[in-house]
Amino acid sequence: MPVLPDPSPWVFPEPAEWDPEDDLVAMGGDLAPSTLIWAYLQGLFPMPVGSPRDPIGWFSPVRRGVLPLGGMVVSKSLRRSARDFEVRVDADFEQVIDACGDRRREGGWITRDVRSAYLELHRLGWAHSVETWRDGRLAGGLYGVAIGGLFAGESMFHHERDASKVALMGLVDLLRDEHADRRTLDVQWQTPHLATLGVVEISRAAYLERLRVAASAPLPTAFG
């Protein structure tokens, strides 16, 4: 089971204080485990803003991207690809976050501090990776934070075609248990690519209500 860290010394603004037209809610604080967990429970996630020396930004998208557990779009070709991979959980979290943070990737945002913070969350049992392997090699995967019935996806990567999509399929399968109706798979923002997989947008208010329900659900067995 995840290890609960000490309480955070930081206080985030209440939702009523958030700008209804701005995804960025707050700046500052730190990336300590308690700060991160408290932020996720309030519907926030961190992302660097500007240079690594600038304060961390805390986001809650006005239009949130979520993947309904019964709504992932899986093509016939993707189902065929899935047969070629083995899906594993937490087999090599560090290799996954390093692949996601590869500075050669366009739009890379995983700084050294972010990497260290999520490695510590993983050590404490809060952050997890879902991976695809072939012939003993990591082919793709994703990582995120699991709190009760919430899985907050952070990033994904692939070295082989469809490998990250198959990892997402694996994650959905892990979440579709007897508590699936109380679970939320958060992907932060809908992108054109994620939309093809079934990701939809919901309002910030709707997300916060889903989060309230998800927080009271038990952790999926794979992450417990």
From TrEMBL:
An annotated GO cellular component: cytoplasm
GO term, biological process aspect, one: protein catabolic process
Location of this chain's protein in the cell: Cytoplasm
Keyword annotations of the record: Acyltransferase, Cytoplasm, Transferase
Highest taxon of source: Bacteria
Gene3D superfamilies in the cross-refs: Leucyl/phenylalanyl-tRNA-protein transferase, C-terminal domain, Leucyl/phenylalanyl-tRNA-protein transferase, N-terminal domain
GO molecular function: leucyl-tRNA--protein transferase activity
EC number(s) given by UniProt: 2.3.2.6
Matching Pfam families: Leu_Phe_trans
Catalytic reaction list: L-phenylalanyl-tRNA(Phe) + an N-terminal L-alpha-aminoacyl-[protein] = an N-terminal L-phenylalanyl-L-alpha-aminoacyl-[protein] + tRNA(Phe); N-terminal L-arginyl-[protein] + L-leucyl-tRNA(Leu) = N-terminal L-leucyl-L-arginyl-[protein] + tRNA(Leu) + H(+); N-terminal L-lysyl-[protein] + L-leucyl-tRNA(Leu) = N-terminal L-leucyl-L-lysyl-[protein] + tRNA(Leu) + H(+)
EC class of the enzyme, as a word: transferase
Family: Belongs to the L/F-transferase family.
NCBIfam families, per database record: aat
Role this protein plays: Functions in the N-end rule pathway of protein degradation where it conjugates Leu, Phe and, less efficiently, Met from aminoacyl-tRNAs to the N-termini of proteins containing an N-terminal arginine or lysine.
Protein name: Leucyl/phenylalanyl-tRNA--protein transferase
